[in-house]
Design goal:
heterodimer; A: alpha+beta; Beta-Lactamase; Phosphatase 2c, domain 1; Heat Shock Protein 90; 3 domains; six-stranded antiparallel sheet; five-stranded antiparallel sheet; 21 strands; 43% helix; rod-shaped; B: alpha/beta; Transcription Regulator spoIIAA; four-stranded mixed sheet; 40% helix
Chain lengths: 663, 99
């Protein structure tokens, strides 16, 4: 790239050179014209002098009298011509006369130029136009051009000699054009001067452009420092030219910028503080939701997993579950979604959570709770926020679930161990809008193995980047794909599918869900098993165990995939007992009993080894291949079986696995 | 269990496996896979005829994967059935074996 200084330099130089050449040309042509005029006057003066001194020129025939050049007057005139030529520094002075359309040479300043009177001026037809002009126009004419021949350069003039108004002869003068050498010298000098001028121009224009660009460069340095975040720089301003004015504007800009950055830092700090407070609010909010989920314990009727992922720091979603009695025979599930997001929605949500819980504890009636909470919310709701909710109250002993809806989306339910479908809901308006909104209870009866999935519309209506919605059909299909998984893994799997669809770490709306598996107490009171087998606690017995199990599973009509899952789980439990219960493989006995029918598969392992709770020996998965592989078997079993229990009784380890098979 | 070996050395080995992989077959599978690893850097395991795989099989394969990685080779599982694939996916191991 050409630098600015180079461009300045170029423009300066060309400009100065052009001016110099123009001036030179004007001066040269002017001086040429002056010289020409002076020569003209000089020659005219000489010619008129000759004409005055020698009246005989008016009578050329007299000079040529007798056709000879030896007359006294001829010689005298020739001498005179010679004197004139010498003293005026003419090369040649001569006289012509016209005769019969030709010019005849009469005499000249050079004696021996010709001897014969008959010698004619050699040219007339092609005589110089100026000669003809002098003759016809009767005035002296100078040939503007300079002639050069072997005798040197000269300039010619023709001067007509008049007698009685007629041209009788023409006096010719050749002036030695010595002045030309002077003129040449002048132009040489001029050229040298021009070149010198141009050469001089270069450093000057270079220095000037350097100086100008240097100031811009300094300006640039300051700008650079500012762009690096150093606002202490200031442009030094000198004079009042454009660059100085630019510098002034710049200084003003730096001042403004410094102020803005100062403000920005303040605002950022303020925002940071608010974010911190929001994150505290977010923590507080999520701390209000129950975090301990009942699972893997003999004395629990349900497995529950719940999760809330917010679109902003604070959420307008809400889930809750709590027992209504100390015996834990009745449990309430709540899912709710406040209109809007962020802090206002979060505050509204907290109020709603408190009110619903209080109402449910007092009345244990979902429709009543919705009715009352709606009234309270309507009383003080200037912002017209509203909340949708489903409240479920489940009797764990009987499996009877009462539920009511306030404009929420239908939960998924799998009641008889069938596929998931949408739970039938009575219509009910969202809470917080109308005082007179009415709500109705519905009833459903759960059997063991029934499943319930409550969620907010951030789940089934999750959007991808193209604005496509996950949709109910896909949501239902996804739920059924993972229906076999336990609540926690089921929820993870569904959320994972939604994430794969939306490809967004931060959801467009809060995503909240409760996944529930109803076990029910009575099922685990297994009083009799279908069969039992006594095995040595050695892996060698595995084949026998699996084929024994296989027979019962086939008789119960289990599909291949289910058989595979149960088989693997059975193997993992047995191999663990064989390897660890006696501190290595032995020939001690273990007793295995099973029940396998259309509704359930239950297998109980008893061994007399040292206390060993294999449930405490599982690992979490990670993405690294470097994991401990020792606990993988139990991990797989926990995922596939609906429940595993461990008990230590009468010096025996008792492990029981359960699988609901009614699908 | 039955094994069929195709290829050798630099071209890599494809080891076809037939049968169930339980804790009983752990050792047998281990030695067959180890023999293949000592022979070639790049191993393909064809699971077309494997319909059952428990954590015992996973242990063998994870240990094989570590050996092959140390050698700068590859180990890939082909044609795994839906059930077998589910075991890998659930334990988060499927990506290790190019499944």
């Amino acid at each position: 790239m050409k630098s600015l200084s180079f461009r300045f330099f170029l423009v300066f130089s060309v400009y100065i050179a052009a001016i110099t050449v123009l001036i030179g040309w004007v001066a040269f042509s002017q001086s040429n014209r002056d010289v020409e005029a002076a020569v003209n006057r000089y020659m005219s003066y000489a010619a008129s002098l000759v004409e005055r001194e020698k009246p005989v020129l008016k009578d050329p025939d007299l000079l040529m009298f007798g056709g000879t050049r030896h007359s006294g007057i001829y010689r005298e005139t020739a001498d005179y011509f010679k004197n004139v030529a010498d003293s005026f520094n003419f090369r040649y002075v001569y006289l012509l006369k016209e005769e019969d359309g030709k010019f005849i040479f009469v005499l000249s300043s050079e004696e021996d130029s010709a001897d014969s009177a008959e010698e004619l001026f050699p040219v007339y037809g092609n005589a110089p136009a100026e000669l003809t002009k002098a003759f016809e126009k009767k005035e002296s004419v100078i040939i503007g051009r300079v002639y050069s021949d072997q005798y040197g350069s000269f300039i010619s003039m023709f001067y007509p000699i008049m007698k009685d108004g007629e041209v009788v002869s023409v006096l010719g003068i050749d002036y030695k054009a010595g002045y030309l050498r002077g003129a040449n010298k002048f132009s040489e000098t001029m050229t040298v001067f021009l070149i010198a001028m141009m050469i001089l121009t270069f450093p000057v224009s270079f220095a000037v452009s350097r100086r100008m660009v240097n100031r811009i460069r300094k300006l640039n340095d300051v700008i650079w420092r500012i762009s690096e975040g150093d606002f202490n720089g200031k442009v030094a301003v000198r004079g009042n030219d454009e660059i100085a004015r630019l510098g002034k504007s710049f200084n003003k800009m730096i001042d403004n910028l410094r102020q803005h950055v100062g403000n920005l830092q303040l605002v950022t700090a303020e925002k940071e503080r608010m974010n911190n407070e929001l994150s505290i609010a977010s923590n507080m909010q999520s701390d209000m939701l129950p975090k301990v989920f009942p699972k893997f314990a003999l004395n629990e009727y349900v497995l529950i997993h719940a999760k809330m992922k917010s679109a902003k720091e604070t959420s307008g979603d809400l889930y809750d579950f709590f027992y209504l009695d100390e015996q834990k025979t009745k449990i309430v599930f709540i899912i709710a979604d406040v209109s809007g997001k962020g802090v206002p929605a979060a505050l509204f949500m907290v109020i709603a959570k408190m009110l619903i819980k209080q109402q449910m504890l007092q009345f244990d009636d979902p429709a009543q709770a919705l009715l009352n909470v709606n009234k309270i919310l309507c009383e003080e709701n200037p912002q017209n926020m509203f909340i949708t909710a489903v409240i479920c109250s489940l009797d764990l002993i009987t499996g009877k679930m009462t539920y009511a809806n306030a404009g929420h989306n239908a939960p998924l339910v799998s009641i008889e161990g069938e596929s998931y479908e949408f739970l039938k809901l009575e219509k009910g308006r969202p809470m917080g809008l109308f005082q007179d909104s009415a709500y109705e209870n519905s009833l459903v009866r759960f059997k063991y193995g029934s499943k319930l999935y409550l969620y907010t519309d951030g789940m089934n209506e999750a959007m991808n980047h193209d604005g496509k919605v996950f949709g109910n059909a896909r949501f239902l299909e996804t739920a059924n794909q993972y229906i076999d998984l336990q609540p926690e893994y089921f929820d993870d799997a569904v959320r994972n599918e939604i994430f794969n669809f939306s490809q967004s770490e931060i959801p467009s709306d809060d995503m909240t869900s409760i996944s529930i598996l109803y076990i029910g107490k009575p099922k685990f009171e297994i009083d009799s098993f279908d069969d039992e087998i006594v095995l040595k606690t050695s892996v060698r017995e595995l084949e026998r165990l699996l084929s024994w199990t296989g027979v019962f599973m086939r008789n119960a009509g289990y599909g291949e995939s289910l058989r595979n899952k149960i088989n693997i789980s059975v193997e993992e439990i047995f191999v663990n007992i064989a390897r660890y219960a006696y501190g290595g493989e032995t020939d001690e006995n273990a007793v295995v009993r099973l029940v396998a029918d259309k509704e359930k598969f239950v297998m109980r392992f008893e061994d007399g080894g040292k206390p060993f709770n294999l449930l405490e020996h599982s690992v979490k998965t990670g993405k690294s291949g470097d994991r401990k592989v020792g606990g993988l078997g139990i991990y797989i079993t926990k995922k596939w079986m609906d429940e595993i229990t461990y008990d230590r009784k009468d010096g025996k380890n008792i492990v029981t696995i359960y699988k609901f098979t009614r699908r | 269990m039955e094994f069929t070996k195709k290829g050798s050395g630099n071209g890599g080995i494809t080891l076809g496996i037939k049968g169930r992989i339980t804790a009983v077959e752990e050792e047998e599978l281990g030695s067959a896979v180890n023999a293949a690893i000592s022979e070639a850097d790049n191993i393909k395991l064809d699971f077309k005829d494997v319909d059952y795989l428990s954590s015992a099989g996973l242990r063998v394969l994870v240990s094989a994967k570590k050996q092959v990685d140390a050698k700068g080779g590859t180990i890939v599982i082909l044609n795994a059935s839906k059930d077998v694939r589910e075991v890998f996916e659930m334990t988060g191991l499927s990506d290790l074996f190019g499944m």
